[in-house]
Task: structure prediction
Amino acid sequence: MSEVFIVPELVVLDTHRNLPVSVNSDLLTTCKPGWSYKQQAAYQIFLLGAVYLVPLSVMSVAYLRIGLTLWSGPIPAEQCVVDTGEHWQYPIIIIIIIIIIIIIIIICPPFHGSC
Result:
């Protein structure tokens, strides 16, 4: 999936030499996008939304639904099982889920390369 997001940047990359013209070496050549600053900013905003905000929103909605299910009462699958009276633990589980989401948001921001 990441290959799809990088294709626009691969198309507009230009090579730039970091050495004087008299030196004929490709060793210190860098690649830079050849589009304008506005186009680069628009592309970065698109990447922020597509790679970070959309997955974060989907994950948050999923965890929210889990939390609401736990908070509202017994889990639907437990209706067949004998009630153990441990419904008091559900708010603690919801707090743990919220803490996990906050930790993921802090540890894996979009400018962090290893997540």
